Amino acid sequence: MIKCLKGNVIFAEEKNKLKVMPHSYLVINNERSAGVYESLPEEYKNAPVEDLGDKLIIPGFMDVHLHAPQWLNKGVGYSEELLPWLQKYTFPLESKFADIKFAEKYYKLFVDELKSSGTTRACIFASRHYEATKLLIELMKESGIGGYVGKVNMDRNSSEELQETYEDSVKETTMLAKEYSGDDNALVKFILTPRFVPSTTSELMTKLGEIAEKYNLHVQSHLDENVDEVAWVKELHSDIPTFTEVYEHFGLLPDNRTVMAHCIHNNDREIEVLKKHNTFIAHCPLSNFNLASGIAPIKRYMEEGLDVGLGSDISGGHTLYMPVSCVAAVSASKIYHVSHKEYSPLTFAEAFYLLTKGGGKFFGKVGSFEEGYECDALVIDDSNITSIDGMTLEERLEKFIYTGNRGNIVRIYCRGKQIK
Ligand SMILES: [Zn+2]
After folding, report:
1. What does pTM read for this prediction?
2. How far is the CA of 110 from the centre of ligand 1 (A)?
3. Where do the structural domains in the chain lie, given as residue ranges?
């Protein structure tokens, strides 16, 4: 079925330039965009048109790294850095997801908030629990938004309640891989999720590499987030030159199918390894600020041709509402620029690209309105945001991203289907 939305359409076709089309038609052919037109082409003349007046029509937001169980901890514990924070806040909370009733109550609220935030695709860590992970996959399917959900693997250096055995980890991961792989077109898919190197034994990482290969799974994890973490990985795997190469060694950087969160302290050698495998980078500036982890050289990654998207990293980050991460990405790049003059700060257009088309690339042809892209769209009513008459559409978009909120998102489409 073909339908058309008429409004002020804005999207990021290129990395550093917004495509702005006032009072234009976004043509939706079933799941995909059939293009944006200033006047409706003859072939679509009979298609129904909904006129949205002066509202903005933009792509859905992409969140390429977050932890669903940690949603309950957002806004708490930021006087600690990563490793003590995990022990003190994260592991005790995640262990509660062994209780399926507890998981059901809070995962429902989490999915509702994720959806109302305008995020149409997300790459999600659940906890290490099989039942609760399965439940989260099902709740995501019901919600109408898409992405990846993974059961966390962790068989060393955890808390007593949360740590799993090698045998259980392999068994439960394989069950989920069998249940949720094979359908390339599924809107919600399973993703292999070793928590990070210190949490997984060499034996388990070897097996997970085999499972990734066998079921053609995508992989998500954390990389070079915190200096103490990097030193710990060096201690645990002194025979492997770098953190990145530990994942590579165990087959956990499958080409074009891996997303690594943070990538703050990577050296040149590691960047070459990421390029070799076309590894996707999840930039999580709010988390990096909150846990004093550092600032990732995002402009360098973009210039070197690596794919980058933005992650809320709940609960390292404190909000699921992705425009806050978009603004933080700009801020982080400006602070980075002060001590690295060779890399200019991100422009607003570049940050909006990361928020939409950049992050969307991890999910397929998602995050843009170019013809053939899966149509994820938000309709924005910014009439309650005080603006000066005559402000351009680019300025209105920037103002909405910086000063708007969930209430300005009046409609949401995922894969061509209206879900709000
Ligand atoms: Zn994380």
Report:
1. 0.98
2. 16
3. 2-60+367-418, 61-363
